[in-house]
Design brief:
- The structure is a single chain.
- It is built from ten helices and six strands, in the order βαααααβαβαβαβαβα.
- By secondary structure, it is an alpha/beta fold.
- The protein has two domains: about 140 residues, Rossmann fold (3-Layer(aba) Sandwich); about 60 residues.
- Strands 3-2-1-4-5-6 form a six-stranded parallel β-sheet, sandwiched between helices.
- The termini are close together.
């Protein structure tokens, strides 16, 4: 079985696609809009948006559909529709997340979230799901200037945790997240969601696991 580095004292989680099974839910809301307003090939720009902040995602859509694409209008409609269905922590949790967080807390690790999502939204979803007590720090995408794949958000999380980057493990589902964690000199673990492992993640990730439950089992060895 895989083994973790012995120097790890903190775990940093992405949120969407790692804590919540939300990437598919957001994609489905965009898909409904693409059918309503007739903008095709949504999968191509959307997949590039996984793991980046709102500003970068907007630019990806504008680059793909053109400068006159009403991204802000559509994004606001998507947010409203998503909130009605999944707001206040009602998005489905990824299997095994509660057990993993409980394991980490019981073993004395420091724990943070470093998500490209706005901090206010992260707090709403995590708090609504009753998970806030597990986390020592919450870092949202609006707290740093540069989005993943730059390492800034993970470095800020380490700083807030009073931990050296090399003593941190990052749990991610996105290519940009793995790149950012590697650039931060942390130990990246990929638990794939919508994006399958590619050659880059196989090179950069310290581990690629099928589920969070698998990581709990490794921690309990």
């Amino acid at each position: 079985m895989n083994t973790l580095p012995s120097n790890i004292i903190a775990y940093i989680f992405d949120m969407d696609g790692v804590i919540f099974d939300s990437e598919r839910a957001v994609f489905n809301e965009w898909k409904l809009l693409s059918e309503k307003y007739n903008f095709p090939n949504l999968e191509e720009p959307y997949m590039k948006c996984i793991g980046v902040n709102a500003q970068t995602c907007k630019q990806i859509f504008l680059d793909y559909y053109g400068a006159d694409f009403p991204y802000d209008e559509y994004c606001e409609e998507r947010r409203r529709n998503y909130h009605v269905k999944y707001g206040h922590g009602r998005a489905p949790l990824k299997p095994g997340i509660k057990e993993l967080l409980e394991c980490l807390r019981n073993q004395g690790y420091r724990i943070a979230i470093a998500s490209s999502t706005r901090t206010e939204s992260v707090m709403e979803h995590v708090g609504g799901a009753g998970l806030l007590p597990y986390f020592d720090e919450i870092i949202g995408g609006d707290m740093v200037t540069r989005s993943k794949p730059n390492p800034d958000i993970f470095l800020k999380a380490a700083e807030r945790l009073h931990t050296s980057p090399e003593n941190c493990c990052v749990i991610e589902d996105s290519y940009n997240g793995i790149l950012a964690a590697s650039a931060a000199k942390m130990f990246p673990i990929m638990v794939p969601d919508m994006l399958p492992p590619n050659d880059m993640t196989k090179e950069k990730a310290g581990m690629i696991l099928d589920s969070l439950t698998e990581l709990t089992a490794i921690l309990n060895q």
